[in-house]
Amino acid sequence: MSDMSYAAAGVDIQAGDHAVELMKSSVGRTRRPEVLGGLGGFAGLFSLDLARYPRPVLATSTDGVGTKLVIAQQLDVHDTIGIDLVAMVIDDLVVVGAEPLFMTDYIATGKVVPDKIAAIVSGIAEGCVRAGCALVGGETAEHPGVMGVDDYDISGAGTGVVNADEMLSADLVRPGDVLIAMGSSGVHSNGYSLVRHVLSAARLELSSRPAELGGSTLGEQLLTPTTIYAQDCLALIREVGVHALSHITGGGLAGNLVRILPVGVEAVVDRASWSPLPIFQYLAAQGGVGRTDLEPAFNLGVGMVAVVSADRADAAMDLLSARGVPAWRLGDIRQAGHAATAAVVLTGDYSNCGF
């Protein structure tokens, strides 16, 4: 008689239990005082501090990391991709002025390998530590016969809170405001379908060490974790004053800045104010990719943009610099040519760049 056990079907419950044990110490690093209970319950519990937030508005976001996962799997490096996940989720919350409170994660895989799952979760926990939020729970699902044994996908959801009268929005943006750029760490977690297309077409090896990349391998550059800006943005809000924030992800500067503009204004970005990071220049050169394709796919070195009043621009850049965040004046907000529209205008040419 054939074996009709769950294990024979490809699901290893003991491996899943072992993975949970391995990740407990990582998850414990993210604990906040408001967290109730421990890991392993059916739901994560979080007690909202109504003394700090008397008029609370909850903000929520969910995301994944796209095909950057393919690079991690090819390199068999799994302890950084979780940082990318937190960045994608939590930095979408902070743009409305919300303090990130907690996250949950979901991992689907063809086969649960406890050490691999623990490595993924250790990255998620590290991201939560950087973001200042708790990791209150998650789920690991084994999908034998549906996913390959080495394949996995991850996603997450986050919750934050902001007082109703402290929310950031397009309504606060005015002509005369200044755009402050916050430098990215690299490709972040967007545009990897184009990255992989270039890798394939140009026959590039992830183990190669192009001189243009300063001695690191191409794989190391592409797996550089996404910068998490949440605590830096909250510091800007508290200490300087911010009218709006834009997380630069898929769609690039134009596609994301327009989301925070009121009708009747335009954001004018000066390309000459920075030079795109070497990884973008390298991909452009190797793949023959032009500016019109690069700008919507990548952040090109700008991971977050703050809109502040002109008289607070220097203070904003000083604060970010003191926190170790590269920052510069990216452009400004002007009256739009057509009162019924909002637009982003990219002017000039990038500094020291071939595209």
From TrEMBL:
CDD domains: PurM
Domain of life: Bacteria
Catalytic activity: 2-formamido-N(1)-(5-O-phospho-beta-D-ribosyl)acetamidine + ATP = 5-amino-1-(5-phospho-beta-D-ribosyl)imidazole + ADP + phosphate + H(+)
Location of this chain's protein in the cell: Cytoplasm
InterPro entries documented for this protein: PurM-like_C_dom, PurM-like_C_sf, PurM-like_N, PurM-like_N_sf, PurM_cligase
Entry keyword annotation includes ATP-binding: yes
Enzyme's top EC category: ligase
Domain PurM-like N-terminal: 57-162
EC number: 6.3.3.1
Pathway membership, UniProt: Purine metabolism; IMP biosynthesis via de novo pathway; 5-amino-1-(5-phospho-D-ribosyl)imidazole from N(2)-formyl-N(1)-(5-phospho-D-ribosyl)glycinamide: step 2/2
GO molecular function: phosphoribosylformylglycinamidine cyclo-ligase activity
PANTHER family: TRIFUNCTIONAL PURINE BIOSYNTHETIC PROTEIN ADENOSINE-3, TRIFUNCTIONAL PURINE BIOSYNTHETIC PROTEIN ADENOSINE-3-RELATED
Family: Belongs to the AIR synthase family.
Protein name: Phosphoribosylformylglycinamidine cyclo-ligase
UniProt source species: Jatrophihabitans telluris
Organism taxonomic ancestry: Bacteria, Bacillati, Actinomycetota, Actinomycetes, Jatrophihabitantales
